Amino acid sequence: MKVVLGVSGGIAAYKACELLRLFTESGHEVRVVPTREALKFVGAPTWAALSGNPVSAEVWDDVHEVPHVRIGKSADLVVVAPATADLLAKAAHGLAGDLLTNTLLTATCPVVFAPAMHTEMWQHPATRANVATLRERGAIVLDPAVGRLTGADTGPGRLPDPAEIFQVCLRVLRGRPLDLAGRRVVVSAGGTREALDPVRYLGNRSSGLQGYALARTAAARGAEVTLVAANVALPDPAGATVVRVESAAELREAVLAASGEADVVVMAAAVADFRPAARHDAKIKKSDGEPEPIRLAKNPDILAELGERRRAGASGSGGPAGSAGAAGPGGSAGPAVIVGFAAETHDVLANGQAKLARKRCDLLVVNQVGEGRAFGTPDNAATVLVAGGEPVEVPLGPKEDLADAVWDLVAARLA
């Protein structure tokens, strides 16, 4: 497919070389269109050598080929990385002073912006308004990552990892709809750890791969994503705001805080059912005798709490108890759609059906785990149980495919 890689004038322009390599090595034809300012960071010969195509920032070069119209109209995807505050402002207001902004005006394909700028620029009301305008017009504007910026500054504004931008672009190129545009979603991922002492903990085998796939695919479908990650060693998905937690109590606090403004909550994290009843302040030493038994206490059931809060809110607002239609972003009834996950080792569907009713969620993704299945693998298969509907079988495939199947069902319920 034909990809236009727009590069605007920020220090993160050098990272676009990695994004370009990922596109070309996966067989895409890439035309790099930098701004004049971007060429001060990375020169035209570099872009030409890496892409195998000519590079220009001007509409006056090769005028007989009408590049300011042809490039955008012939593209299957336009991605701008980095997208500076200046570039976002020009795109939002329809300015066309160079080849890149002309290309954006003539593009009829999906457009992805990966912003990178200082925190103050990203949070400025003008930038926020420009981002909102672009999103309303159907563009995907990823939220920047949080991290080290130019100089000693740290905060939101860092360019997302090029490999993660690439993954979002692949989902867009596969023709997924922007049916989550304007929606706020919360996804939990990973596995909680419950401290026994400063060294040891109770945990589980969840890697977070499925939750991260859900976050990544939601961003590619236009959603504003908050990812609550429990002990996950993966790059942050492009476009997601990541909140890191360790224990079930911390995950509960983060999910409930984020869910108040959410349209959808997806509880993909493997939350420990139990925690040690007492946490030792010092490492427990091995003795010659039998070890002391570890007493366990129940952890909060976050999925059930979300369902109960929505039921109580819907009842209090006059809507039918447990009705997804009674909920909405920021409303007292909570998220419109709640999705749970159930990792089972036996009696998979029977346990799943009981859990769906008990937790009061709308969808429950049930899969069998153990013996190399689900945890830590790139593939997954599942049955999605639907409240008031027929189960949906998702065959074994990449975890992103299961994620898209879940979002298909979520989008249908939101509609």
Automatic annotation (TrEMBL):
InterPro entries: CoaB-like_sf, CoaBC, DNA/pantothenate-metab_flavo_C, Flavin_trans-like, Flavoprotein. Residues 310-329 are annotated as: Disordered. Its EC number is 4.1.1.36, 6.3.2.5. Residues 185-415 are annotated as: Phosphopantothenate--cysteine ligase. GO terms for molecular function: phosphopantothenate--cysteine ligase activity; phosphopantothenoylcysteine decarboxylase activity. Pathway: Cofactor biosynthesis; coenzyme A biosynthesis; CoA from (R)-pantothenate: step 3/5; Cofactor biosynthesis; coenzyme A biosynthesis; CoA from (R)-pantothenate: step 2/5. Signal peptide: none annotated. It holds the Pfam family Flavoprotein. Its cofactor is FMN; Mg(2+). It catalyses: N-[(R)-4-phosphopantothenoyl]-L-cysteine + H(+) = (R)-4'-phosphopantetheine + CO2; (R)-4'-phosphopantothenate + L-cysteine + CTP = N-[(R)-4-phosphopantothenoyl]-L-cysteine + CMP + diphosphate + H(+). Residues 1-171 form the Flavoprotein domain. Residues 180-311, 336-412 form the DNA/pantothenate metabolism flavoprotein C-terminal domain. Keywords: Decarboxylase, Flavoprotein, FMN, Ligase, Lyase, Magnesium, Metal-binding, Multifunctional enzyme. Residues 1-184 are annotated as: Phosphopantothenoylcysteine decarboxylase. Residues 315-329 have a biased composition (Gly residues). Binds 1 FMN per subunit. HAMAP family: CoaBC. Catalyzes two sequential steps in the biosynthesis of coenzyme A. In the first step cysteine is conjugated to 4'-phosphopantothenate to form 4-phosphopantothenoylcysteine. In the second step the latter compound is decarboxylated to form 4'-phosphopantotheine. Catalyzes two steps in the biosynthesis of coenzyme A. In the first step cysteine is conjugated to 4'-phosphopantothenate to form 4-phosphopantothenoylcysteine, in the latter compound is decarboxylated to form 4'-phosphopantotheine. In the N-terminal section; belongs to the HFCD (homo-oligomeric flavin containing Cys decarboxylase) superfamily. In the C-terminal section; belongs to the PPC synthetase family. This is Coenzyme A biosynthesis bifunctional protein CoaBC. It comes from Actinomadura luzonensis.
